[in-house]
Design a protein that fits this description.
globular, 255 residues, mainly alpha
Length: 255
């Protein structure tokens, strides 16, 4: 039953990662329920999510094609700051970070809802002044760096934070956004898993069972996403994000 639970959680989590983000909110609790200690469960969840991110990004490759000029810069930032986040996990307690998670989630949902409006307002005020454009681009990279540190430290919620960042960056095509989200997540997860593996902080057995489900679910959902109206996916992201924010507030402050 434990193996079946982890596999099914992986399937659902992988599909959710491809469509909206937040699949770790399913896989991580499943690992805990299977008896994996919290720190190991956190690192093992990142390991399980990695192939799903890669397979999902592959499914979205055509949608990402118009934005291929961003891949190198985003990749470098993701690798560097994802590793920093993984290092932080090894020295900061999960208990302390759990108090911060709901605030980060709430901020991410707000950015996803209002990101395009904020970006439009910034463009309107900056006009053609190169300095303002350069400053805006630099601030966006700082935001991406912070999100990648978060992802390396605590993988849950990374997808929603990345969608918020991409909305701030002026993107509106939800399928291209999901593709770039999964591309960045793949790099963050890869460097984090390498660091966790070196430290012996991964439960390879339970994590691998979830990994198989996540990989299948992520790829299938990415291939089928084009048949789902973008508005439905966007509404789903917002509703899910608000729900997860409320859940983490309840767990951190009221449970």
């Amino acid at each position: 039953m434990t193996e079946l639970l982890l596999f099914l959680a992986g399937l659902l989590g992988g599909a959710l990662n491809s469509l909206a983000g937040g699949g770790s909110f399913i896989v991580f609790p499943a690992l805990l329920f299977s008896g994996v200690p919290p720190v190991l469960a956190n690192a093992s969840n990142t390991y399980a999510a990695l192939p799903g991110y890669v397979s999902g990004a592959t499914g979205y490759w055509k949608a990402m094609a118009p934005y291929k000029d961003r891949l190198i810069v985003y990749g470098i930032v993701s690798a560097l700051f994802g590793y920093i986040g993984a290092e932080l996990l090894l020295v900061v307690s999960d208990e302390l970070f759990s108090m911060v998670v709901p605030w980060l989630m709430g901020f991410a949902v707000a950015l996803f809802i209002f990101g395009n409006r904020i970006n439009t307002a910034i463009k309107a005020r900056s006009g053609e002044r190169r300095g303002m454009k350069t400053l805006g681009a630099a601030l966006l990279l700082v935001l991406l760096a912070a999100v990648c540190v978060y992802g390396g430290f605590f993988n849950a919620g990374l997808g929603i934070l990345l969608l918020a960042f991409l909305a701030m960056a002026g993107m509106t095509d939800i399928h291209a956004m999901n593709g770039l989200k999964l591309y960045i997540s793949s790099i963050v997860a890869l460097v984090a898993v390498l660091r966790f593996a070196f430290d012996g902080s991964i439960d390879w057995y339970h994590g691998s069972i979830a990994l198989v489900g996540v990989t299948i679910g992520g790829y299938v959902a990415a291939r089928l996403a084009r048949f789902i109206p973008s508005l439905w996916i966007r509404i789903g992201v917002i509703v899910y994000g608000i729900g997860m924010t409320g859940y983490f507030f309840w767990v951190a402050y009221f449970a």
